[in-house]
Amino acid sequence: MNSKALTYLSFLVLVVGGGLLIGLVNLPDAWYRSLAKPAFNPPDWVFGPVWTLLYAMIAVAGARTFMNFRRTAAMRLWWAALALNFAWSPLFFGLREPALALIVVIGLVVSVLLYILSSWKQDGPSALLFAPYLAWTSFAAVLNGAIVALN
């Protein structure tokens, strides 16, 4: 296997595998089901497929950035977004701290937006791969905020 393929594979394992593992360890439980949720809250089954697809896109963007622009602000923002993303589920579901999770998801939205802006000129395809991520995390922030407000 060549180094390019190994890089893509490594990022896929890290991001998709890490995301799925964190999701499995922090599944919605009776506490979550008892929370008041807004009318626009999607059914639970939507989150798994959406996040799996997003994680694959995040991994591809990360691998591209790592291979071509490793020592840039874009790469640092990619890592920041991943760290914030991976922190959200343990805060919200594990520690049952929706308000703290809201702060994290707002930071995530900002880091995703800054990644798009910083990578746009150097690697347009990677920036575009983050566009659905920005849309979904923005929706997640609104949803998280509504849950905090309702509870």
UniProtKB/TrEMBL annotation:
Domain of life: Bacteria
UniProt cross-references to InterPro entries, sorted A to Z: TspO/MBR-related_sf (IPR038330), TspO_MBR (IPR004307)
Protein name: Tryptophan-rich sensory protein
Taxonomic source organism: Mycoplana rhizolycopersici
PANTHER family (alphabetical): PERIPHERAL-TYPE BENZODIAZEPINE RECEPTOR, TRANSLOCATOR PROTEIN
CDD domains: TSPO_MBR
Gene3D superfamilies for this protein: TspO/MBR protein
Keywords in alphabetical order: Membrane, Transmembrane, Transmembrane helix
Protein family according to the UniProt entry: Belongs to the TspO/BZRP family.
Membrane topology of the entry: Multi-pass membrane protein
UniProt keyword Membrane present: yes
Lineage, top ranks: Bacteria, Pseudomonadati, Pseudomonadota, Alphaproteobacteria, Hyphomicrobiales
Subcellular location: Membrane
TM segment ranges: 7-25, 45-63, 75-93, 99-117, 129-150
